[in-house]
Batch of 2 targets.
Target 1
Amino acid sequence: MKNIFNIMAGVVIVATMSSCAVTMPVAISDAPIGGKRGVSETNVLFGIIYTNGNYGIKEAAKNGKITGGIGAIDEKTTNYLIFAKKELIVLGQ
């Protein structure tokens, strides 16, 4: 009986820690892509609660010290069992 409990606990831990990541383009502009990269990160609980109130293009550009135009925007989403991690990636000058 103890072995079954240990196996089930292991399955629950593995299911909780497993993830799937997808990166998709959001937008592209006429601005040159440049050599700077900025990232804004947040966690999303139950698909609706964002934990970072500043999550967005403005924060990503500020983090990457992008002062010129933004050439491309991508969003990477990593899904876990009850939450997701989102990263907004901007490329520019």
Target 2
Amino acid sequence: MPAREDLKNLSLLGTSESRLPANPDEARLETFENQRVGRRYWITLNCPEFSSLCPVTGQPDSARLVIRYVPGERCVETKSLKFYLASFRNQPAFNEEIVNRILDDLVDALAPVEMIVRGEFAPRGGIQLTTEATFPDAAGVKP
């Protein structure tokens, strides 16, 4: 198989880098060329051990995140996604904001045809919260 030039820009994959970004602003979502542009297919990424912090109490929140998208010209490299998602573990934010931020950041990095980010957060005080954000939104407007 011939070498792909677009893969030379990936800085995390194939390295022993283990230092996680301190926050999502520091994280870098890396991408590579979709080899099947024009074909409508879904990519599903499951993160069952996502964590963040409640902005009021400082208590940890945990969730199962599922990211599904139909790629456009770019796909997300999963090691960079892992580092990006781990950067939320010390980030104080409400669950709803986290899911929407992840969607916005991924849409900016990938320009997908369609994307859904779903966060199923562990119960707090007897209430389980699930947030789902989609692109394009109901009005067809990019965030």
